[in-house]
Write a structure and sequence with these properties.
Blueprint lengths: L19 H35 L21 H9 L2 H32 L5 H10 L5 H14 L6 H5 L6 H11 L4 H9 L4 H9 L4 H17 L2 H6 L8 H8 L9 H21 L1 H13 L1
Helix pairs in contact: 1-13, 2-13, 3-7, 3-10, 7-10, 7-14, 8-9, 10-14, 12-13
């Protein structure tokens, strides 16, 4: 009998060092991180500059030197502008217009999007095409007719003059229709076979699956109404009735300020806070809604 010589199995332990492919992947990752960091700094810097200007006496326009933080930061700009101008009324008006207008507009968009996506009726395609055509009509074309309608209704210089004409949001209806095309028709038919009416089917079956859609509509609607300038400028006339963007425009020509930019930056800093809060609350559903709508 011959003895069998046992040979050790070849080692499978990876040799020290990294492959060229791994090094290239790591280099690309670092370059991508650096590029995204640079873009993030460029995006955030105007917000930082606004806060610095708000904490600088008179704003940074008073000094020819460039600095990233004032030597003696102060809240004097905030105190002065809030004491001399009805800024709290402006913020309240903007909050009323943005919240009520967004809530009503979301309801209209959900209902119209559901009807265009799930109902079959004559002229549906033509009606939807007409909706989309209105996106290409600039607001300057409809400004005078819309103002005449609001004036005939006696709504000039009231929040409803800003809220009612913006209830029909074509972009919101488009997003709602695209999202609801993905709701299974079998689910709706099953609810109808179980005896549920149209309203109950919508509120109990369709609406619970539209959380991401509602987040998208709320963020876009609130942002557009909070930042809207032209239409509120036309229909709001009294200083107490203005919204924040229109009120900001009055500060630049206000003789009460020797240099208005500190006051402007102070009000702008406060006005950004509601937008950040709304975005942070609906951020997750906003991303999900945009992603699902784009895929469909």
């Amino acid at each position: 009998m011959t003895a069998t010589t046992l040979r050790p199995a070849p080692s499978t332990t990876p040799q020290p060092g990294r492959s060229p492919r791994a090094r290239r992947s790591s280099r690309r990752r670092w370059l991508l991180t650096a590029g995204l960091t640079a873009v993030a700094i460029l995006v955030v810097f105007p917000l930082y500059w606004m806060i610095v200007s708000a904490l600088t006496p008179g704003g940074q326009s008073q000094s020819s030197e460039f600095y990233l933080w004032p030597d003696a930061p102060t809240t004097g700009n905030f105190t002065e502008v809030f004491a001399t101008q009805p800024v709290w009324r402006w913020l309240g008006n903007s909050f009323l217009v943005a919240t009520v207008g967004t809530a009503l507009s979301v309801c209209v968009s959900l209902g119209a999007g559901y009807a265009l996506a799930k109902y079959r009726f004559r002229g549906r395609g033509l009606l939807y095409a007409l909706f989309l055509v209105t996106i290409m009509i600039p607001i300057q074309v409809t400004l005078v007719p819309a103002f005449l309608v609001v004036a005939r209704l006696g709504l000039v210089d009231s929040p409803w003059a800003v809220i009612l004409p913006t209830l029909f949001d074509v972009v919101g209806i488009f997003i709602a229709r695209q999202f609801m095309l993905g709701v299974p028709d079998a689910l709706i038919e099953a609810a109808r076979l179980d005896g549920a009416g149209e309203l109950r089917t919508f509120f109990r079956v369709v609406l619970p699956s539209c959380g991401p859609l509602v987040g998208v509509l709320v963020i876009l609607g609130f942002m557009n109404r909070w930042n809207d300038f032209l239409w509120p400028l036309v229909v709001l006339q009294g200083n107490e009735s203005l919204t924040v963007p229109v009120g900001l425009s009055t500060l630049t020509t206000n003789p009460a300020f020797s240099s208005p930019w500190g006051a402007v930056m102070a009000v702008a800093t406060v006005a950004v806070v509601p937008l950040l809060v709304v975005f942070l609350v609906f951020q997750r559903t906003f991303v999900q809604g945009i992603a699902s709508t784009g895929i469909k």
